[in-house]
Amino acid sequence: MVQRLVELARCPECGSPHVVRDEDMGEFVCNECGLVIREDMLNRSPEWRAFTLEEERAKRRTGPPTDYARYDKGLPTTMWITHDAFGQPLSSKTRHQMWRLRRWQIRSGIYGKSRNLLKAMNMIQRLSEKLHIPPSVKKTAAIFYRRALDKDLVRGRSIASVATAALYAACRLTETPRNLAEIAEASLRDKKEIASGYRLLVRRLRIKMPIHDPLHYLTKIAEKLRIPGDVLGLAIKILNEAKKERITIGKDPRGVAAAVLYIACQLNEKEVTQQRIAETVNITEVTIRNRKKELMRKLNI
DNA sequence: AAGACGAAAGTGGTTGA
DNA sequence: TCAACAACTTTCGTCTT
Fold this sequence. Notes:
By secondary structure, the protein is an all-alpha fold. The chain folds into 4 domains: 1-62, Single Sheet (N-terminal domain of TfIIb); 69-108, no CATH class; 116-204, Cyclin-like (Cyclin A, domain 1); 214-299, Cyclin A, domain 1, CATH 1.10.472.10. It has helices at residues 53-59, 75-78, 92-108, 114-131, 135-150, 159-173, 180-187, 191-204, 214-224, 229-244, 253-267, 274-281, 285-299, and strands at residues 19-22, 27-30. Helix 4 packs antiparallel against helix 5 and helix 6 (159-173) crosses helix 8. The N and C termini lie far apart (70 Å). It binds a DNA duplex through residues 191-192, 195, 199, 250-252, 255, 273-275, 283-287, 289-290, 293.
């Protein structure tokens, strides 16, 4: 099936000129931000062409080409996509994903929520591509969204915000390092909106989020700044002490990790500035200083 | 000149009434 | 739902190396 793409005016959301008309899906989609501009556009033209009467008779099927009242608007067939928006053939991996999405769509199609789900899946798909989120995490997000839909949590909220929140929750659960700011920015939605959606999902779906261990960040920073193993070893020792003294609870694990590593570097006379550590984990030097002060005091260093 | 330190004011999230 | 609260950030002046 050939996709016909027609350039439109600028996207009302992000101002991007890359707004594309996707006739097969019956949608206008912004290639920059993934905004679906007119999702209920109806393609009334026949999906086939005939040049002779015989041809027309041969190609015509029963009923009108598309029917808006049908639950799926013929979507199970239109989801058979073999080329991307630029006319390039899809990779086998993406084709496989599309195939799964299609099969899944056919299965759920008889239910009233299918359209909602399809839109959400599109949203999650676009966001995942934009943020380079691995397929396994994306799958988790999809499952979260489905469960949210089952529990009627989407009612009264926008599909986009819940879908984005589901993706964020999936990232948190799988410890995929994407923060709220990045995801909110990619979805072009308010951080608050995503955050409240996230909390709703965690609460109502009873998702058990892993507690972020400073150790996780410790090794990460050490690797990035090429901290030698013995210094890292010392840092881990200090961290374990801190855990015993219960200094780490309720604090930003990144701050604790950063401070512990900084102390270890100083004790080993390894020159690393607070600033360098701070920027690798996206916190401020002040936080490192505060944590450091507390650690030094309570651990008698 | 760069890095460290800390005070003060502001922000966003959590908690408990 | 709202106010209080702790943690964290931003900003900025000062001190040290």
